[in-house]
Give the backbone structure.
Amino acid sequence: MSQRSWTTARLLFALVVACLGLEVATSRTAQAQLRSPHFENWGDLPPGEVGRRQIGRGGPLRGYFQPVEVSAPEGAHVSLLVEGRFHNFETSSALVGLLIGDVYKVRITRIPGRAGFEVYPSIEIIDRLYPPQGLEDRFPIPVVVTQDDLDRAVAGEFVVRVVYLEDPSIAMPIPQRDGEQRSIDINGSDDPLVAADQLGRPMAIVRIGSRVPDEALGGGPGWSPPLQLLKAPEPSDSDQ
Amino acid sequence: MSVRFTMGTLMLCLAAVASGCSVPALRSAMPTAHNLPPAQMLMQPGPGVGGPGPGVIPNMPPMGMGPGMGMGMGMGMGPGMGYDGGMQAATAQVHFKAPVGMEIRWDVGGVGQYDSEPLVVPGIQNFPENGVYRLKVTGIEGREDERLYPTLEVAPINARTAAYLAHTPIPIHFTEQDFDQALSGNFVTKVIYVPDPEFQELAIGGVDTLVSTRLDPGVDPIVEADHRGAILAVIRLGRKDMELEANELGVMQTNYQQGLGIAPGYSPVPFNQGGAAPGYISGVTGPAYGMPITGTPIGLPGPPHIPLGVPAGLQQHTIHNHTPMHIPGPTPQLDIHLRQDPGLSYPRPVDTVRIREQTIRPLHNNMQPPADMVHGYPPGAGGYCPPGGGY
């Protein structure tokens, strides 16, 4: 056997090994890009599931009323389900304390340009902030429901907003106006919770659709988790 | 020669790796394609035995819990009750969107009554999950004389569809093409489903609809929708009139009867209970005269010789079953090898921690305030500071 033949055989053998290694590497990379095995929460989980898993991980989450400021477009009215009845705050925003892991129903009426339509989003708090003691009300989680969200919901679409706390190292150095909440639109094939986790710490999941809850259809009072009214006008009687 | 063989083997391996092919024949000696019996045969628990199959319990609501009163999921995940405590019925809200002005009714007091208040499209209505509901559709624009009876099957709510159904109604559209297909005698199946992420691009509003009339022949829309995502509801539309006034007893069956061959309207109970053989009465206690009970490959209404009065031409009819069959016996031992893909992977626990503390040095040197400086010599003789060198 000549030296040249041996060299050719060794070269081919090395090529085969390299192809095998490349195939294994590419398949694992593709799987890793599809879904991270370390991330077990997804945006399409049932309402309340992500919050329950967060509480199950431990930490000072259980029983903490996280201040949340719910805002709707100017002129709209925000109502929250309190003790089985929708209480209208007759303003476009309300500051309330919500428990982590529970899902709260919100009703938005008097939508600008959508007379006669009502939208019932839900808010699920999945994490908390750690502000200085005594200043919790000054640093609420802003939940802004935009006019575009409401228009999409009325048109029959299902909108999921994930509010996250920006990672200061990758935060966008752009000033934000009052009442504005910048949002990033993602593709339908991407998961909003995963995208938010890559940009910071997810705090709340807001789901917006056009389903009318049974409480509003006369199905009787439903169960509603407790909440704290932090700064809002005196709620009027339920107008359901 | 050895070098050629080695090179040939390596080239073969290289071609297999490059093409990514696999050789099924090398995995097992068994044929790779298996054919199941027809679905009608699979529905039966065994030859000659009817019914839904062993161990199959019909889907019936529990006693005392009618539709709309069912218990919710324990964790309170389902829509309708979803995040409100889990004591409310799991319902899916259906939004009938088109055509506008059409009226829809459904059963309230009993099956076939269609006694609900008419729902004028567009409108919404809650239906308990995991149920099939017969609808009555009237008042179709341009087809005022037609009435259709589609069925609405609301799929059971699962973790994939719970969030969507808790916030958004299921959109139902009846198109002109659907009505044309149904009124021309075709069977239309519409499947509304939530696509998986890889099929989400073409979906509008988070859901997509598959219609049987728009798919290739032979493609089951339910199977296809289940492959693409999670099914929310299924609409089946045909032309069958469910309120047709007809006397079934007035319909006379022609030709022969299967089974006991009893003429219509007669009781199948024998005249004498277990006694001697009953007298043969053609068309009463037995098949009608000349009617066959077994088909022949040439379609003769045998027995051929009796009515014709000639010797039988066909004297033997043998059927040979040449169907290739491979029905193995029960497996004595079952090994299950489970592989979850992607596998479980957790970060390695921390075994080394390197901490580097960095203190920010101020731009200016911190010095002792002049007022606190001590000037002069330290007490005692033999001071360590030279004269005149005090701070």
